[in-house]
């Protein structure tokens, strides 16, 4: 447990940041009045997500590895961090769906049918629901976390001096 203390800390911070992002989206109207823009603007979440992953990896390097972390060590740390975020994501998604923005799914279902993205409400409901989003967020967290780590560690790792 001590070996992954930093990853647990950053996974919790990542989840809190995700919840705050969703509050911001809701307050800005992206879950209601401006739902047509949600598809595009929600992708800006990648900026704080990458930032938090990098901060977690840098802390691991500084605190756990005393400033000397190779690519493999960082990759393992990032995979662990991504895995913990993925494990927490169904709970995070539950809070978003049922507490922060319970109107999001009804709004996006209605709008997606109105604009012809889906032919029927039933089709839209099959896509826009808690279970589907919980699965997508877990898989997305794992995949994007690993990709982010793989790239970030090129820059974060300790370079060998000769």
UniProtKB/TrEMBL annotation:
Domain of life where this protein originates: Bacteria
Species in which this protein is naturally found: Flavobacterium erciyesense
Record protein name field: DUF4199 domain-containing protein
A Pfam family it matches: DUF4199
InterPro entries: DUF4199
Transmembrane segments: 7-24, 39-57, 78-100, 138-156
Transmembrane helix listed as a keyword: yes
Keyword terms of this UniProt record: Membrane, Transmembrane, Transmembrane helix
